[in-house]
Design a protein that fits this description.
alpha/beta, Cobalt-precorrin-4 Transmethylase, domain 1, Rossmann fold, 3 domains, 5-stranded parallel β-sheet, 16 strands, globular
C-alpha cells in the first residue's frame, strides 16, 4: 500500500500531547485572572486582562499538529517551512524537539535542495505559496499542512476573483508569509492578477490612478515588490476584488474596501459598480475578537497598556497600534524578559519602529495596567510578564497573596 504523503487533519494524537502542551504553555496566573473576571488587585496595582487574547484556534491547531507530527514520526527528519507562527518561544520549542527550520535564501526562495522523499515537512499556519507547495509535492516528502482555516477562506476569495477576471487587491504586508501565500493563489488561473496595498495611503494612490489616470510607470516602480508579474496599472484595475491579510487592523481593511468601492462608483456609476468591484471582510474572527476586546478594555482606560507578542507578529503589532490610537500609553514587548528585573526598565519596540528601546520610570504613578497579547503568544509568557511587572513594582508578596 502506498504511504500517504499529505496530512491536514492531524494524527489523532491529541491526548498523547496534552501533557507536553500544558507543560510548555499553561499558566496558573492567567487561569486565575480568567476565573476572577479578568482582573486582579495586587496591593495598590490593578491588573486588567483583555477578555480575548493569546493563542487563537488556528495557532492552537498548528502547534498541536507540529507536536503530533514529532510524535507520529519519531525517527524521521522533520522540517518546517519558515516559522510555525510568529512567536520566538514556540519556534524555539520546536527546534528543541528536533524540527529543522527552512529559510529563504538570498534570492527569496526556500532552500528545499537537501530534502528527500523520506523527510517530513510541516507547512505553517500562514500557509505556503502554490509554487512551494508544488515543489514539495514533486520531492515526494510527507507534507503536514497546518494552514489556518481563516487563511484558507481568504484563498478561496482571491481564487474566485481570479476565476472571474477580477484583480485581487490585498490589504497586507507584501513581505509577510501569509500575504505571499494568499497572493500566489490567483496564479492558478491564466491572467490572474494581484496588487498588495500596505495601508490607506497606498490604497488612495491606487484609487486616484483608477479614477484619474496618471504615470503608470511610476506606479509600477512604486509597487513592483507588491504586484503580480506583468501587472499593468491601466489594464488590471478596471475590475477589482478586495481581500486582506487576516491579521490586519480590521477598521483599516474595511475603510480601504469602502474607498475602492466609492472610487468605482465615481468612475463607472452606481449601477455599473458591481461589475467593477467586489468587497468582502476577510479579517479572521479571532483577530477581530482580540481587537474588539481591547476596545472594550479601553472604554475604561488603564494608566498604560502592555501588549505581549513577537515583534514580527502582524496581529500583535496592530493591537498595539489600536491601543495608541485610543490615546493610551502603550508598550509592545516581545516577551516577559523585556521586563528587566535588575534595572527595572522595560525594553519595547515603539509603534512603527524597527529596534527595541529601553523605557525607564514607566511604572511611576501607575495604578492600573491593561494586558493583552497577540494570537501567537502562549499563556505562560503572558503570566510571566505579569509576575515580572509585579516584581519590578515591589509587589511579589502581594501577588502571591492575591493568587492564594
Amino acid at each position: 500500500m502506498t504511504e500517504a504523503t499529505y496530512f491536514r487533519r492531524g494524527f489523532g494524537l491529541k491526548s498523547e500531547i496534552e501533557g507536553l502542551l500544558s507543560a510548555d504553555y499553561y499558566s496558573h496566573l492567567i487561569e486565575t485572572l480568567r476565573a476572577r473576571g479578568y482582573q486582579l488587585t495586587v496591593g495598590p496595582l490593578t491588573i486588567r486582562l483583555a477578555r480575548e487574547f493569546g493563542f487563537c484556534y488556528g495557532v492552537d491547531r498548528a502547534v498541536d499538529y507540529a507536536y503530533e507530527t514529532r510524535m507520529k514520526f519519531p525517527d524521521r527528519r522533520l522540517h518546517l517551512v519558515g516559522e510555525i507562527i510568529h512567536n520566538p518561544h514556540v519556534n524555539a520549542k520546536l527546534q528543541a524537539m528536533g524540527v529543522a527550520f527552512l529559510h529563504r535564501g538570498p534570492e527569496g526562495e526556500f532552500d528545499f535542495g537537501h530534502l528527500t522523499a523520506d523527510d517530513v515537512v510541516i507547512m505553517p499556519a500562514f500557509g505556503v505559496t502554490i509554487h512551494d507547495f508544488s515543489r514539495l509535492k514533486d520531492i515526494g516528502c510527507v507534507m503536514v499542512d497546518t494552514t489556518c482555516g481563516s487563511v484558507l477562506n481568504v484563498w478561496k476569495r482571491v481564487e474566485s476573483y481570479a476565476k472571474d477576471g477580477f484583480t485581487a487587491m490585498i490589504h497586507g504586508k507584501h513581505w509577510h508569509e501569509e500575504t505571499k501565500a494568499t497572493a500566489s493563489q490567483v496564479m492558478k488561473y491564466e491572467g490572474g492578477r494581484y496588487l498588495v496595498v500596505l495601508d490607506m495611503q497606498e490604497a488612495r494612490a491606487v484609487c486616484d490612478f483608477i479614477e484619474r489616470g496618471g504615470d503608470a510607470e511610476a506606479m509600477t516602480t512604486r509597487f513592483t515588490p507588491a504586484m503580480s508579474p506583468g501587472f499593468d496599472f491601466v489594464r488590471d484595475l478596471t475590475r477589482v476584488g478586495l481581500a486582506n491579510q487576516t491579521t490586519m487592523l480590521s477598521s483599516e481593511s474595511l475603510a480601504i474596501a469602502e474607498e475602492v468601492r466609492r472610487t468605482m462608483v465615481r468612475k463607472f456609476g452606481e449601477p455599473a459598480a458591481p461589475e467593477h468591484v467586489r468587497t468582502f471582510d476577510t479579517i479572521c474572527s479571532a483577530t477581530q475578537e482580540r481587537q474588539d476586546a481591547v476596545i472594550q478594555l479601553l472604554a475604561d482606560p488603564p494608566d498604560l497598556m502592555i501588549v505581549v507578542g513577537g515583534y514580527n507578529s502582524s496581529n500583535t503589532a496592530h493591537l498595539a497600534e489600536l491601543c495608541v490610537s485610543h490615546g493610551v500609553r502603550t508598550f509592545h514587548i516581545e516577551d516577559s524578559g523585556c521586563v528587566e528585573l535588575d534595572t527595572g526598565g522595560l525594553r519595547h519596540r515603539p509603534i512603527g519602529g524597527k529596534d527595541a528601546v529601553l523605557a525607564t520610570g514607566w511604572l511611576d504613578g501607575v495604578a492600573s495596567i491593561g494586558i493583552t497579547a497577540g494570537a501567537s503568544t502562549p499563556n505562560n509568557k503572558i503570566g510571566e510578564t505579569i509576575t515580572r511587572i509585579c516584581a519590578v513594582a515591589g509587589l511579589t508578596a502581594e501577588l502571591e497573596a492575591a493568587l492564594a
